[in-house]
Amino acid sequence: MLRSAVIVLIAAAAAAPARAATIHVPRDAPTLQAAVDRAGPEDRIVLPRGELSGGALVDGLPGLVIRGRRGSVIVGSVDVVGSPGMRLEGVTVRGAAGAAIAIDDSRDALVRRCRVEGAGGTGIVVAGSPGARVVACRVATAAAGIVVAGGE
To answer: How far apart are CA 117 and CA 40, in angstroms?
Structure first.
């Protein structure tokens, strides 16, 4: 009887949805890319105030949230590929050589309350990502502001 109860409890625990993790940079991961590499789908990455050197490639992480605190600055670019529902919120992205924020093949992605400064290319590019939104963002000193291409 006890053995059956233990098996039922183990099966129930295995069937329960995993809880999304919150990863704080730099406490839990030293860089934004290290945090992304550690993250799973639906996880949340919280960025500190101040500058973070190096951008990140987010590839295949649906529902990932990267949220900055007031004054969070990413020096580099943020490239998102194949990550539907991914959200980037409340950060400044500065000094990217090409596009500062690029969203590709990421249906329903959201870029909100972000600022782009000093990008060598386009500020924000959204391509092939139906339902993706750019909300309350500002692009300053980029070759082009916001470009949306492809999608439905």
So the answer is: 29
Cα dist from 1 to 4, 8, 11, whole Å:
5, 11, 16
Between CA 144 and CA 128 the distance in angstroms is 19
Closest CA to 46 of 70, 20, 72, 67: 67
User: Given pLDDT bands bounded at 50, 70 and 90, which one contains residue 5?
Assistant: very low
H-run or E-run covering 62: none
Pairing mode of beta strands 65-68, 56-59: unpaired
Average the pLDDT over 109-126 and give the result.
95
Structure tokens at 111: 């870029």
Considering only CA atoms, which of 67, 74, 65, 70 is closest in space to residue 99? 74
pLDDT recorded at residue 151: 56
pTM of structure: 0.87
Dihedral angle of Cα 135, 76, 102, 139, to the nearest 10 degrees:
40
Residues present in the chain in total:
152
Q: Is residue 22 helix, strand or coil?
A: strand
Sequence-distant (6+) residues with CB within 8 A of 102 are: 77, 78, 79, 80, 124, 125, 127
